[in-house]
Amino acid sequence: MRRISSYTEKKTTSHDGLSLYYEVLGEGEKVILFVHGLGGDIAAWDEERLFFHQLGYKTIAFDLRAHGFSDHPEKKENFSLEHFARDINAILEAEKIKEFLLVGHCFGGMVVFTFEDLYPKRAKAIILIDTSYRAPYISNKSILTSLTLAFLPLLIRFSPRSHVPH
């Protein structure tokens, strides 16, 4: 069950035309943007968003592409870390946010690292939780890579398109 009821639901368009779902809680100049991990959704940050909202922060969380209420890309090349990072930028542009803290968990932390690489020093600070700086290396010739690429379209097609209760 969601803990937040007073958020504002919004959507914006990514650089490659996908609809991105996000929520804004609160108002003001102190902003924290939260990036969930792979397979999660926006609800992963409910507790943290409520906590920081009570401290006077405006919080933003969004569903990564192919998660929750955000669109699912049709092409596997649209799942690069750069695409995910550019989605963060699309939300910041839509909200006209100049100064913010960026928090990423697990895969979301890799997205945050990539965002920092593409948009150096745009975030006032980055906070990383249980993450790595890059995805593990898998050889292009490995069986695991071949199987993953073969099943990726099915995973995309049948992945949940709604929020998963915690």
Main attributes of the structure:
single chain; about 170 residues; alpha/beta; 6-stranded mixed sheet; 4 helices; about 30% helix; about 20% strand
In short:
This protein has 166 residues and is of the alpha/beta class.
The level of helicity is 25-40%
Q: What's the overall geometry?
A: globular
Strand order of the largest sheet: 1-2-4-3-5-6
The count of helical stretches stands at 4
Order of helices and strands: EEEHEHEHEH
Strand percentage: 15-25%
- Amino-to-carboxy terminus distance: 7 Å
Structure summary, number of beta strands: 6
Describe the structure.
- By secondary structure, the chain is α/β, with parallel strands linked by helices.
- Helix content is 31%, strand content 20%.
- The chain has 4 helices and 6 strands; from the N terminus they run βββαβαβαβα.
- The chain has helices at residues 46-54, 81-95, 107-118, 143-158, and strands at 8-13, 19-25, 31-35, 58-62, 101-105, 125-129.
- A 6-stranded mixed β-sheet has the order 1-2-4-3-5-6, with helices on both faces.
- Helix 2 packs across helix 3.
- The model has no long low-confidence stretch (mean pLDDT 87).
